[in-house]
UniProtKB/TrEMBL annotation, chains A, B:
Upper lineage: Bacteria, Bacillati, Bacillota, Bacilli, Lactobacillales
Domain Csm6 HEPN: 243-406
Domain Csm6 CARF residue range list: 72-167
InterPro entries with a match to the protein in the record: CRISPR-assoc_prot_Csm6, Csm6_CARF, Csm6_HEPN
Protein name, entry field: CRISPR-associated protein Csm6
């Protein structure tokens, strides 16, 4: 429902053979409901105002008077008016209501307060100004408050079908929304979708809020469970390529956010996954026992011998161990000693000890190793690219998503 | 230096035998400097305004006119006034200056803009209103712009020592800071310290900003590298207890944030760490080769035999494998079959497969297993409590930190 909320000023309802601002906004916008806010001094002319509003042809709005009467000694106190009027406007705000504020009626402080409500409060309202018929100051033009209302209506030049529309809607930015937007952009630039969602969730009447919230909740909930974002899931990439790409994008995002402990822990799993997948697809080199990868020693006795020899050199024994990153690298070195992948696996091996201190010994990451982590992230991307046919555009997935979200903000 | 910045309106400097707002604020606050902002329309009376200001007894302010003249067709456009006046006010802002804005002079748009600067800009200013002498609308009271200024000064009833102070300072909240505070509280409740820090980092003149930023940057950077927060690091807890507690608190925080994949991956490491530490301290059961834990088979041949038997039952062989969570649970079952810990280790075992799918197969976590994760988080806390002497107050570490931060907000 469209609701016009207006204080009643000395110019209302009719002055100088023309609509006062309240009557004029009603004539142009024809709101279904009009809430009049009286001051002690305007209370007397309530019936005149109602009669004037009812004089608009083919229009029968619901006209109510707000319970609160503005005190004469408060109508020129700006912050009191701001607090009081905010309160009143708040009472009429709801998803179903489209609230219009009059920006021209009553004292400068009331007008300023209405303006401030439109521009700085959380309320998603509209605010309308009305120019004087002569388009300049009313100074020197008398008031018609004492005249007979029927005569005023009769002689009102605006009371005809071809009246001149003197309304002007204030379409400027709302500072509150603008500030929120700035905050959201800061969080978005840090890929903190959960934070953006939480802030939006506390907003009323933000533009595009439904679509924004849905997009942000989707991606945030997906990330939380290491899910595959819809676009990637719907792509033609194989399910292994999707898993690896998704894991890499998560690592890169965390790296940009500075979550180094997280990056370290996941990097090894990613490269292990890629190598396991590659070696198994190319060479059928793995047998799974209890879901754990073991060497297909029957098919590759020479690799078994190599593993046994390596262990012996370290004074250990090899017995069908569960395969891991280091074994995969050994296998690759054995089978394809010139493979591109081997240019990068060294960078992953280099961080393995630091990684285990964080993952298993629960120790803090030492920032002096940051450069190695950075190299390892880069290496993991090259390993991914060398193992799967993944088009380059996928690597800007989160930045593309941010652009999409920014368009809605 | 106290500086009054005021536009000049039709009521200035004197109207109806009383101070206009500009003159009145000067009379009450006696600022050392007064900056007059003229519009084209008020420019003519500059000398009258200066003369009136100089009529205040025992007061000789520096009176300057800002270079910028407001255009007549712009004084009723809010956005222009806000931008222009913000700019002017910004020029006078400095640590040494205490800036007062007049909230009563000139057009409603200028008043609103001044109010907005006080309430939503980053500037730390004060804003003062002046009530009319009759404490109500000025309607029907003529302007005195054409009268002789000396006569006006002579007959100004406020120009005496016992004048009535009609000023009223706007002490309302700054909306920008208030909105930011609300946003920060939402993010803080989600333990998103990085987001809180990023938003604060974009703020100027926020109360306690230095201390807040330091606290938030500290905790955020600590979390990123799995560091031990200072308070925990300085406690009397053993270094192992500190590592385990810190890891648990990170898991719990991530659990509250909904980061289930992360929780799953870390839970196993935590419990593995606790059991390894407990069994080694109590029974000296581990030998380390290449930093990896192996069974001290010389000391515990019966456990070795048990492991070999278990493997054989599954058609496998046991050969000095690297110990992990499941081995530790087996050892504990063997050595202390009635130990409290065993009431909870089952919950960790239950999520092990789901965990490996996320950690190693890079698959999405299936939310149908959420209840098991929740039970496992609870179990991990009990395992921690049963293994280390950690006082209960440590478990509210992040909530206590949030309370501390909230006090500064």
């Amino acid at each position: 429902m469209q609701i016009l909320i207006s204080a009643v000023g000395d110019t209302d309802p009719i002055r100088n053979f023309h609509d006062g601002p309240l009557l004029h906004i009603a004539r142009v916008y024809r709101p279904e409901k009009i809430v009049l806010i009286h001051s002690e001094r305007s209370l007397d002319k309530h019936e005149k105002v109602v009669k004037a509003l009812q004089s608009i042809k083919d229009y029968a709005p619901e006209i109510v008077q707000d319970d609160l009467i503005l005190k004469n000694d408060e109508v020129s106190i700006f912050d009191t008016m701001y607090a009081t009027l905010s309160n009143i406007v708040g009472n009429y705000m709801s998803d179903e209501n489209d609230v219009i504020l009059s920006l021209t009626s009553a004292t400068p402080q009331i007008i300023s307060a209405m303006f401030a409500i439109n521009r700085i409060s959380d309320f998603n309202v509209r605010a309308v100004q009305v120019a004087t018929p002569q388009k300049s100051s009313n100074e020197g033009i008398g008031y018609d408050n004492e005249k007979d209302i029927d005569v005023l209506i009769e002689t009102n030049l605006d009371n005809q079908s071809d009246f001149e529309d003197r309304t002007h809607e204030d379409k400027g930015i709302n500072f509150s929304q603008d500030l929120t937007k700035r905050n959201l952009n800061i969080l978005l630039a840090n890929y903190d979708y959960e934070a953006v969602f939480k802030l939006l969730d506390s907003q009323k009447g933000f533009p595009n809020i439904k679509k924004l919230k849905k997009t942000l909740e989707n991606i945030s909930e997906t990330i939380k469970i290491q899910g595959i974002p819809e676009k990637i899931a719907n792509s033609k990439l194989s399910s292994q390529a999707q898993n690896a790409l998704n894991s890499y994008l998560n690592i890169e995002r965390n790296y940009k956010q500075g979550n180094i402990a997280e990056v370290l822990i996941r990097l090894k799993s990613l490269v292990e996954y890629i190598l396991e997948n590659y070696l198994n697809e190319q060479f059928n080199i793995i047998v799974y026992t209890d879901n754990k990868p073991h060497l297909n020693a029957e098919k590759y006795p020479d690799i078994l011998a190599k593993f046994q020899e390596n262990a012996k050199n370290k004074g250990q024994e090899y017995h069908d161990n569960i395969l891991n990153l280091l074994y995969y690298i050994n296998i690759l070195e054995f089978l394809e000693p010139k493979h591109d992948l081997l240019n990068y696996t060294g960078k992953i091996k280099e961080i393995n000890n630091v990684r285990n201190q964080v993952a298993h010994s629960l120790q803090a990451f030492d920032r002096k190793n940051l450069k190695n982590v950075s190299s390892a992230v880069y290496a993991s991307k090259q390993i991914l690219l060398a193992s799967f046919n993944i088009d380059n555009h996928w690597f800007s997935f989160y930045d593309d998503l941010n652009q999409e979200i920014k368009k809605l903000l």
